[in-house]
């Protein structure tokens, strides 16, 4: 997984020379914050990022996830659990041999884990891609909050609706021509979300 980096400045710069397979990032760093490093990392890498911190406040978690983190672990955490989470995010980034799915101008290549919108490449974090993958495999179907959270994050996240909202918002920012009036990722109030093809009659 590459060599460990030091502080915020060293972590961002060193990783650029040897792209990491995955990153474990502390929110509290000597020369910056983990959230800032994560945001910078996302400019050039889609490697899975697990944020590790003693900070347990909800707003800190949301800030890290909004910056592009894929998972959040509050210290203290056992090494076995941390390694298990690393294996899980790495499995999600491995080639799957699955098909290419087209939804209007949106093209999702499940095997290559690549996405284009109207011919333009879209860079997603591994977690964002996992979420889009579930939508793409269920085009037109209503997917409940609980189902999406369990499918993408696991049973322990079944009630983390805020986590889902953050990631859906991130997907819309990257995929929708107009985030204020989404055409692909629609909200079903009080129920969940639905991926639709706006070029086809409802």
Overview of the structural elements:
The protein has 202 residues and is α+β, with helices and mostly antiparallel strands. The protein folds into two domains: 86 residues, Response regulator (Rossmann fold), CATH 3.40.50; 96 residues, Winged helix-like DNA-binding domain superfamily/Winged helix DNA-binding domain (Arc Repressor Mutant, subunit A). Helix content is 38%, strand content 21%. The protein is built from seven helices and twelve strands. Strand 8 and strand 9 form a beta hairpin.
Descriptive labels:
202 residues, alpha+beta, Rossmann fold, Arc Repressor Mutant, subunit A, 2 domains, 4-stranded antiparallel sheet, 3-stranded parallel sheet, 7 helices, 21% strand, globular, disordered N terminus
Question: What's the β-strand tally?
Answer: 12
Cα-based radius of gyration, to the nearest Å = 17 Å
- What share of residues is helical? 25-40%
Number of domains: 2
The main β sheet shows up as: 4 strands, antiparallel
Question: How much strand?
Answer: 15-25%
Regarding quaternary structure, what we see is: single chain
The CATH topology assignment of the largest domain is Arc Repressor Mutant, subunit A
Shape: globular
In round numbers, the mean pLDDT is 81
CATH architecture of the largest domain: Orthogonal Bundle
Structural class: alpha+beta
**For this structure, what is the CATH homologous superfamily of the largest domain?**
Winged helix-like DNA-binding domain superfamily/Winged helix DNA-binding domain
pLDDT < 50 runs, ≥5 residues: 1-16
CATH domain class name of the largest domain? Mainly Alpha
Count, helices? 7
In N-to-C order, the SSE pattern is: HEEEHEHEHEEEEHEHHEE
Side by side, the strands of the main sheet go: 6-7-8-9
């Amino acid at each position: 997984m590459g060599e460990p980096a030091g502080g915020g400045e060293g972590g961002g710069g060193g990783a650029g020379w040897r792209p990491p397979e995955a990153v474990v990032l502390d929110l509290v760093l000597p020369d910056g914050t983990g959230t800032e490093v994560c945001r910078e990392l996302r400019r050039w890498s889609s490697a899975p990022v697990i944020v590790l911190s003693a900070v347990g406040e909800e707003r800190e978690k949301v800030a890290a996830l909004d910056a592009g983190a894929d998972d959040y672990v509050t210290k203290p955490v056992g090494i076995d659990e941390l390694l298990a989470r690393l294996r899980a995010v790495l499995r999600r980034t491995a080639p799957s041999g699955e098909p290419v799915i087209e939804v209007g101008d949106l093209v999702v290549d499940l095997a290559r884990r690549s996405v284009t919108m109207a011919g333009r490449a879209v860079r997603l974090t591994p977690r964002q891609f996992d979420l889009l993958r579930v939508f793409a495999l269920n085009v037109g179907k209503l997917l409940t909050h609980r189902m999406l959270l369990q499918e993408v994050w696991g049973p322990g996240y079944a009630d983390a609706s805020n986590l889902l909202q953050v990631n859906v918002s991130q997907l819309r920012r990257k995929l929708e021509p107009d985030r204020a009036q989404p055409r692909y990722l629609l909200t079903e109030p009080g129920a969940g979300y639905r991926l639709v093809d706006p070029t086809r009659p409802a």
